[in-house]
From TrEMBL:
It comes from Paractinoplanes atraurantiacus. The lineage of its organism: Bacteria, Bacillati, Actinomycetota, Actinomycetes, Micromonosporales. This is NADPH:quinone reductase. Signal peptide: none annotated. SUPFAM superfamilies: GroES-like (SSF50129), NAD(P)-binding Rossmann-fold domains (SSF51735). The keyword S-adenosyl-L-methionine does not apply.
Length: 287
């Protein structure tokens, strides 16, 4: 099979297309032929070695999000069914990754795709959607309140804003310049320009950029901020939550967006595009 590997820590040029033996699924795993794999900032962080636990020695593979077709499976995941899921990269640390034609993944890490849902769209959901879901769970809010979501133009922030609305909260959302209309279209109660000063603290904050320095009774962030007093949110596999997220995207009650697609062999180009900034939506590798 073809796969993209990180051959050294560094810039996008270290991503190389290689030929490797087809993976063999272990007990409790399914073999998935990948149709789409999302390019995330976490992939860039792994490529340059700036990840929790320290850098992974090359060569290794990257990619958390996949959507594809089961080649070898059983139970509710028979061969031929289309699925989407998350490779727990923080645990596998490059042993496997979504930038490949085939991946062996735990069966409880993927869910079937509803009929008609584009795998490219589905691939944008697992990592960002589950991170947003986890952020709201960690807050342990006892009732509806006001939540400020930073980075609502992005993947995690966009999902966090929408999921908070579904839970009955009032959502204030920070949007990047030029993305105010898209964020407003998520149904939030107020859109705040990025960098705007708030006149008072808010009860709860999902700092999805993260900006740091934002005051609230409860503050969760998706990346470490030194001495900021926030709670760091790390994604956790949750098949039931993933099934609900995918179903909501399929029926249109949860929005996601794809900025651009790239073939697998153009993974380095996709990384350059992501690092150049100004990407509105997710970049997805297609196979």
């Amino acid at each position: 099979m073809r796969a993209v590997e990180v051959t050294a820590l560094g810039g996008p040029e270290v991503l190389r297309l290689v030929e490797r033996p087809d993976p063999v699924p272990g007990e409790g795993q399914v073999l998935v032929r990948v149709l789409a794999a999302t390019v995330n900032p976490a992939d860039v962080a792994a490529r340059i070695g700036q990840i929790p636990g320290g850098p992974v020695p090359p060569p290794f593979r990257i990619g958390w999000d996949i959507a594809g077709e089961v080649v070898t499976g059983d139970g509710d995941l028979p061969a031929g069914i289309r699925v989407a899921g998350m490779i727990p990269w923080h645990l596998t640390r490059g042993e496997t990754g979504g930038y490949a034609e085939l991946v062996a993944v735990d069966a409880d890490a993927v869910v079937p795709l509803p009929d008609g849902l584009d795998p490219v769209v589905a691939a944008t959901v697992p990592l960002n959607g589950l991170t947003a879901h986890r952020a709201l769970d960690v807050m342990e809010l006892t009732g509806p309140t006001t939540i400020l979501v930073t980075g609502a133009s992005g993947g995690v922030g966009g999902f966090a804003a929408q999921l908070a609305l579904k839970r009955g909260h009032m959502v204030l959302a920070c949007a990047t310049d030029g993305d105010e209309e898209w964020v407003r279209g998520l149904g939030v109660h107020s859109v705040i320009p990025r960098g705007a000063e708030l006149d008072r603290p808010v009860p709860a904050v999902v700092d999805a950029v993260p900006l740091g320095g934002i005051k609230g009774d409860v503050v969760v962030a998706t990346r470490p901020i030194p001495d900021d007093g926030h709670t760091l949110v790390l994604v956790e596999p949750d098949r039931d939550a993933l099934r609900d997220l995918i179903a909501a995207v399929a029926d249109g009650t949860l929005k996601t967006r794809v900025a651009e697609t790239f073939p697998l062999e153009a993974a380095a180009e996709a990384h350059r595009r992501l690092e150049s900034g100004g990407v509105r939506g997710k970049l997805v590798l297609t196979l």
